[in-house]
Amino acid sequence: MIAIFKRELNACFDMPPGYVFIAVYDLFAGYFFFSFNLYGNSTDMRALFEMMFTVTLFLIPILTMRLMSEDRRAHTDQLLLMAPVSTTGIVMGKLLAALLVYLVAMAITLVQAFMLSCFAPVEWSVILGHFIGLFLLGAALIAVGLLISTLTENQIIAAIGGFCVGFFLILLDSLAGLIKNTVLAGFVTDLSFQTHYRNFTLGIFNLADVVFYLSMTTLFVFLTVCAFEKRRIA
């Protein structure tokens, strides 16, 4: 798994997607920081993080679109399938590499918070809540993108598919409002990524929300392993 992790991490920075992801993510974070905090003369970073929630949804597919599809296109996936590494190890190596790139991009928000704290008190509980929430959201969306990337060798299709599935999972709470059955509506709401992100925005660390995101990440990793293992057997 470590070898796959290193290989994938190097690949992220040997090709544009890794740099593009970090640059665009930090560009948006910088713009919102200037607009809401510096120009707005405020230490409240809620608006910034709320916007970064949307930015994360749009940008994660750029990061994940090549994770598996590039190997399929270049036929290097056959080497991975024959390597003395478990399928789970291959998938986890790729997931962790993408997650590290995402974490590097996210780090700018903590730098911004520290800059604000040098001039005025900040609500660290809310800031850390948003940060942890965004990290868990990103992990789940990366797992979603990894699965979609496994199913196609076309990176554009992988990016669009990853975005569509992620967008659907985030909007489930809105779709639940169209369901008349209250039990079913509640169940659908509980599956929404946005529903479980709200507590983090208030600085509330709810274990159930953490478990939800970790469970969704694990589920999509499992589905990716199954899809990849099917090709190994074939």
TrEMBL record:
<keyword id="KW-1003">Cell membrane</keyword>
<keyword id="KW-0472">Membrane</keyword>
<feature type="transmembrane region" description="Helical">
    <location>
        <begin position="20"/>
        <end position="39"/>
    </location>
</feature>
<feature type="transmembrane region" description="Helical">
    <location>
        <begin position="210"/>
        <end position="228"/>
    </location>
</feature>
<feature type="transmembrane region" description="Helical">
    <location>
        <begin position="156"/>
        <end position="179"/>
    </location>
</feature>
<dbReference type="GO" id="GO:0140359">
    <property type="term" value="F:ABC-type transporter activity"/>
</dbReference>
<keyword id="KW-0812">Transmembrane</keyword>
<dbReference type="InterPro" id="IPR051449">
    <property type="entry name" value="ABC-2_transporter_component"/>
</dbReference>
<protein>
    <submittedName>
        <fullName>ABC transporter permease subunit</fullName>
    </submittedName>
</protein>
<keyword id="KW-1133">Transmembrane helix</keyword>
<dbReference type="GO" id="GO:0005886">
    <property type="term" value="C:plasma membrane"/>
</dbReference>
<feature type="transmembrane region" description="Helical">
    <location>
        <begin position="51"/>
        <end position="69"/>
    </location>
</feature>
<feature type="transmembrane region" description="Helical">
    <location>
        <begin position="90"/>
        <end position="115"/>
    </location>
</feature>
<feature type="transmembrane region" description="Helical">
    <location>
        <begin position="127"/>
        <end position="149"/>
    </location>
</feature>
<dbReference type="Pfam" id="PF12679">
    <property type="entry name" value="ABC2_membrane_2"/>
</dbReference>
